[in-house]
Amino acid sequence: MSEILNIIINPNPILRKKSEEIKIEDLNNQDLQKLMQDMAPTMLEKDGVGLAAPQIGKNIRLIVINTKDGPQYFINPKIIKKSILKEWGEEGCLSVPDVFGMVKRSKKVYCEYFDIKGEKKSIEALGLMARILQHEIDHLDGILFIDKAKNLREEK
Ligand code: CO
Within a domain: residue 24? Predict the structure, then answer.
């Protein structure tokens, strides 16, 4: 049974810590399996497009993104290349509720990661997917979108 996890709300030191890499041999670990079972439903329940492990209180390098094919996990995701070309786009964050702002991000990123089976994968992401990857990977480095945003506004 999966459960909906509590989201850590800014300000909280957990959101500001650099997260640790996951050892691929630990992927069968029960706690990690349970976490991955719960993160996707938590993201979906809160209408998020992505969720990073620090947001549910774990400082490990794990994110989930709601892709067009459904929730997908990225373990130890690393941006290898990003386009010099950037674009502005509006962002929000489950850890910064009701706040939105414009953030300039690379239009295209090339990212390496491990999947839930521990297989090494890569993705070339464009537009919104590139934006979400950059936003979520920032979480793993203790960075929030409000650090980079302009025209922050509050909307209930
Ligand atoms: Co966020």
Answer: yes
Asked if residue 36 belongs to a domain, the reply is: yes
Instruction: Choose, from 87, 136, 154, 155, the residue flagged as catalytic.
Output: 136
Q: How far is the CA of 62 from the centre of ligand 1 (A)?
A: 13
Whole-number Å distance between alpha carbons of 82 and 105: 9
Q: What is the CATH number of the domain that holds 114?
A: 3.90.45.10
pLDDT tens for 51-110 read 999 999 999 999 999 999 999 999 999 999 999 999 999 999 999 999 999 999 999 999
Per the structure, the count of domains in the chain is 1
With respect to residue 126, please indicate whether it lies within any of the assigned structural domains.
yes
Centre of ligand 1 from the C-alpha of residue 134, in Å: 10
Q: What are the residues whose beta carbons fall under 8 Å from the beta carbon of 54, sequence distance 6 or more?
A: 8, 14, 15, 17, 19, 139, 140, 142
Whether 107 is covered by a domain: the verdict is yes
3-state secondary structure of 36: helix
The sign of the torsion formed by the CA atoms of 19, 133, 57, 147 equals positive
Q: Is 3 a known active-site residue?
A: no
